[in-house]
Amino acid sequence: MIKGILKRFDAAVPEIIGALVAEIIILSASWLARNVGLWLSLSVAVGGTLWILCVYVLLKHKTQRTRIKKGRYRTQRIWRYPHQRLYALAGVILIPALVAGWFFYKDYESRQPPDKIIVLVADIEGPDQQGYRFTEFILRKLNLALVEYKDVEIRPLARAIKESEGSKEAVAIGRMNKAALVIWGWYGKTPEQAPVSLNFEMLRGQAELEFLGPQIQNDIQTVSMEMLDSVRLQPKLATETAYITLFTVGLIRAAAFDYDKAIASFDEALRQTDEQFPALDRSEVYLYRGDMYQRKGQLDRAAQDYAEAERIAPRNPRVYIRKGSLYFESADSRHALEAFQQAVDLDPNSVSAYLGKSGVYLLMEDYAQAAQACNKLTELQPDSSGAYSQCGVIHARNGENDLAQSYYRQALVLAQQVVRQQAYSSEAWNRLGAIQLNMGDAGSAIAAFKRATNLQPERGLYHNNLGMAYAAQKDYAKARESFSAAIYSKNTQDVALAYSNRAALEMIQGLQATLQGLSGTAHFDRAISDLTSAISLQPNLTTYSERGTLYLLRSDYANALLDADRVLRIDPDNLDGWLLKASAHAYLKQEAVMRQDIEQMLARAPNDARTYVAMGILDLLQGKRDSAIARFNEALGLSQGPFLQLQIQKSMSVFSK
User: Fold this and answer.
1) What is the mean pLDDT of the chain?
2) Per DSSP, which regions of 290-364 are E strands?
3) Most buried pick, 356, 426, 431, 551, via CB within 10 A?
4) Which is it for strands 117-123 and 181-187: parallel, antiparallel or unpaired?
5) pLDDT value at residue 369
6) Sign of CA dihedral 237, 238, 244, 248
7) Taking a C-beta distance cutoff of 8 angstroms, is the pair 201, 174 a contact?
């Protein structure tokens, strides 16, 4: 019996050695995975062991040779565990799949932000921590300042981060604790002076952060020993810490599109102190709070904050960039251009300022100046897909399609590189989709915008862009669905844009129906309703002009005049506003007033298509049909705008009777 056992043991030695080697490999891999997380280490150890067992059960067999005839044999496998092989096969397939799935799930989970905004405070290292108690002062001030913030957790680290460990160690510890902000620092002590360093590592909210003073990182302030030993320094540093922490909380809330709470955080930061800190100038807080008001559509409040920022820091170019963007939102080209030019004067290398200038010139249809600004943009940002894409849009609008496609191709290459590097960036996919849409590849643009909306479904801008791509394919049902999805965004700008886009969709369908001899009334009525909603959120020149034109086509001349006046209050030189006003006066048979409107148009742009349309309508009013037709033909030769065609058709129909 013993001999039989030993014989079986000898036969199993290779299997035992193989199993031990495999298990050692698995346990080694499990040990190496411990730094990633205990869950991964256990998954590798347990899953790997079970998988080896399943492989053993699946493959364990012996070979048996059976003699059939003289000199002929049949080789046959005899499975050791025939009834368990099916289960073992399932284990061989499922165990790696489950471990991989668990790994990807935990990896995804680890990348999700925590429910609370965690502020991690390290001990402020120094020679007499118990005496000076910097850490306690900072923790107490933060807890008092954030007592009403139930979504913010102040967490002491209970250890110091040394200067020799620096920012890298602070960031690593912060990520391990899923912190939004890590505060660390140190102080020294000499016979005459005391260096003090307070550092802030932001791990969340960077997407909203455009600028912070250089002193926010590794700022070493030198104070006298008298100041260090007085009761003034600790409260001052604690107040500065609370001020910057509240600002950071505001940024994080802004990144989550919670603009009301972001504003509340910025309010609280400003209430901490009237003192200016070099690490974060108060003008920056006003700028960011103004941004929140702008996104909520409260443009007057935004303008007030930008004005206060300008008072505090009149030579800060970002102030004028914000003011320019505010004017641009209202389609006030003249004031927007002045603001962006002030930013350029203060900072000749400001990318945002030149981007703003190119956009304003594009709105003004001054393509030469727009191209000049865009060329400067590509000089400043030669690796930016956005710069080349903007140049492409400008040249496309100017009819230079080959040059536009050349810029788009450069932009596409750069955008694809970014997407490969940042596959989880919704903004990277959105930029790629925008370039593809400009190039006329609506199918690829739809795929990119879908990736962006899947990654960040709450961002209305991405749904708007997806709707534009569907509209380019003339899939109006899906375009309407995407625009409607954007209406549920928290960003008022995105919601207003969604209403405007949906109105444009109805206008296109209404125009198509009318030009085909069908009724476009229902489409125009829905467009007026959506434009009214957009205006209630974010009034601007374009929406007033479009709604006024629709009122004109619906023979609601009183409301058309009101919208024309609103347009001209924003921009007295706007020809669409003057044409709208002149047309309404013509339909109301107010010939004398209409002549004054046309004089205004002739003084501004005597050879513009809209001026010819207005003069043609006046000729019809006076019964000069042939002259009117000649002027309308001149207008159509200069512009093939569908609304101009429709206005001509309506005028011919009304005044030819």
Assistant:
1) 80
2) none
3) 356
4) parallel
5) 92
6) positive
7) yes
User: What single-letter amino acid sits at 56?
Assistant: Y
Q: Which two structure tokens, joined as six digits, stand for 627?
A: 């002259």
As a whole number of angstroms, the distance between CA 389 and CA 594 comes to 42
Residue 294: Cβ within 10 Å count:
24
Interval 490-504 mean pLDDT: 89
DSSP-derived letter for residue 192 is: S
* Residue-wise pLDDT tens digits, 308-354: 999 998 998 989 999 998 888 877 888 899 999 999 999 999 888 88
**192 alpha carbon, distance to own chain's centre:** 50
Q: Hunting for tokens 């609601």 — which residue is that?
A: 556
Confidence band of 46 (pLDDT split at 50, 70, 90): confident
Q: In this structure, are residues 247 and 146 in contact, taking their beta carbons and an 8 Å threshold?
A: no
Question: Cβ(132)–Cβ(126) under 8 Å?
Answer: yes
What is the number of alpha carbons within 13 Å of residue 38 lying toward its C-beta? 0
Q: How far is CA 53 from CA 83, 89, 296, 642, in A?
A: 15, 11, 61, 74
CB-side neighbour CA atoms (13 Å) of 451: 19
Q: Is the pLDDT of residue 565 over 90?
A: yes
Candidate ranges 68-82, 119-133, 259-273; pick with highest mean pLDDT: 259-273
Cα(493)–Cα(500) distance, rounded to whole angstroms? 11
* Gap between the Cα atoms of 337 and 346, Å rounded: 14
- Per-residue pLDDT tens for 427-483? 889 999 999 999 999 999 999 999 999 988 888 999 999 999 999 999 999 999 999
- In the predicted structure, residue 631 carries a pLDDT above the cut 70: yes
Q: How far apart are the C-alpha atoms of 461 and 33, rounded to whole Å?
A: 40
Is the pLDDT assigned to residue 217 strictly greater than 50?
Answer: no
| Collapsed DSSP state (helix, strand, coil) of residue 123 | strand
Asked if 269 and 285 touch (Cβ cutoff 8 Å), the reply is yes
Q: Please tell me the number of Cα atoms within 13 Å of 197 on its side-chain side.
A: 19
Q: Tell me if 360 sits within 8 A of 353, measured CB to CB.
A: no
Contact of 283 with 312, CB cutoff 8 Å? yes
- Give kind and range of the element (H or E) at residue 170: helix 166-176
